[in-house]
Design goal:
Elements (H helix, E strand, L loop, with lengths): L30 H9 L10 E4 L3 H8 L4 E4 L5 H16 L3 E4 L5 E3 L1 H16 L3 E6 L10 E11 L2 E10 L4 H9 L3 E11 H11 L1 H13 L2 H5 L6 H6 L5 E5 L3 E3 L19 E12 L2 E15 L1 E6 L2 E6 L6 H5 L1
Parallel strand pairs: 1-2, 5-9, 11-12, 12-13
Antiparallel strand pairs: 3-8, 4-10, 5-8, 6-7, 6-8, 7-9, 13-14
Helix pairs in contact: 3-6, 3-7, 6-7
């Protein structure tokens, strides 16, 4: 379980010291805890690993207790993090199938999710690098997409396909085309593969990652990890491998990537406003407003996001919700 995201698009509630995966906006439990509970009954406690950056170790322990934690000495994106997890698992259990999932997504129902993982596990045992795609129900510009090829197989309600390419966060026009074209799925960022198959592909396509992480695991010296390239598993391996397979997930999935996600989980008023906490106003429309700390009042505004917290105040056009990282740069 990858728990090192910064959650920048959820500023100001999400902070470096307490990023999105530790927030309880969508439930009474942090996303991290929901992810752990989602896998209970399929994985034992000994089989679960949380990959976290060093600075979040204390906060992670506070929320999940005595779980297995592997600490990244420095942040280096998903390829090094997953490589580190694979090498740790190989040391502990030998070769086998590993599932990788972010710790800050919302997924329901649990039964359908586990069913998809079981289907992916069978494919991984046959040498595939499995990713999970979600059928788009809207033209989403904040997600990556996977193009699917010929059908490989099916099991129950799960169907798998050859992977035919990735597209990163398309513009609005292309996103609308993808919704109409049944060959494109959202890229969930969830993966399944044999440990050794993955490590072989990492060594083949991003040897600097493999060698640097291997030296860190063997010697424990941070400098080896510091020299590892900052690269995602999608770009470094999945887009280049000939072993790619896509399982279409029959579960509801949301990576809650920006404040726009509140519109999907909180009931809007008649003017299509989502007002959370002590937030209200008059003559407002199509807006998202949240404040738990102080009264938030608005008058005669439309199409904006306002979030008030003890760490700061965000005022943003809804059209720019996906671009908030630019603001922080």
């Amino acid at each position: 379980m990858l728990a090192g995201g910064r959650g920048e698009r959820f500023w100001p509630l999400s902070q470096p010291s307490c990023p999105k995966q530790f927030l309880s906006i969508f439930d009474d439990k942090p996303l991290l805890v929901q992810t752990m509970e989602r896998t209970q009954g399929y994985f034992t406690k000994e089989e679960r690993l949380f990959i976290i950056p060093r600075e979040l170790r204390g906060l992670t322990r506070k929320h999940i207790g005595n779980e297995n934690i592997v600490v990244e000495p420095v942040r280096r994106n998903t390829a090094p993090a997953i490589c580190l997890a694979a090498m740790v698992l190989r040391r502990r259990f030998g070769d086998g199938v590993m599932h990788v999932m972010p710790a800050d997504h919302l997924i329901k129902p649990k039964r359908a999710f586990i069913s998809a993982l079981r289907h992916g596990e069978k494919l991984a045992r046959n040498g595939y690098l499995v990713t999970y795609g979600i059928r788009p129900d809207r033209p989403e510009t904040g997600y990556g997409y996977i193009r699917i090829g010929r059908t490989i197989g099916s099991s129950g309600r799960n169907r798998s396909y050859e992977g035919a390419g990735f597209t990163e966060k398309p513009g609005a026009a292309r996103a609308r085309q993808y919704v109409r074209n049944r060959r494109y799925l959202w890229n969930s960022g969830i993966f399944t593969f044999r440990v050794q198959t993955l490590l072989d592909e990492i060594e083949r396509f991003v040897p600097e990652v493999y060698k640097g992480v291997e030296k860190f695991v063997m010697q424990g010296r941070v400098r080896h990890f510091e020299r590892v390239p900052d690269i995602s598993i999608d770009y470094g391996v999945m887009e280049k491998s000939q072993r790619l397979c896509v399982v279409e997930g029959n579960f509801a999935w949301d990576d809650v990537g920006s404040w726009l996600a509140l519109e999907r989980y909180f009931k809007p008023d008649r003017a299509q406003n989502v007002l959370v906490g002590d937030a209200r106003g008059i003559q407002i429309a199509d807006s998202i407003m949240l404040s738990y700390d102080v009264p938030l009042r608005a008058y005669d505004v439309e199409g904006i996001i306002v979030v008030v917290s003890q760490h700061g105040v965000l005022v943003c056009s809804k059209k720019r919700a996906q671009d908030l990282k630019k603001l922080f740069k």
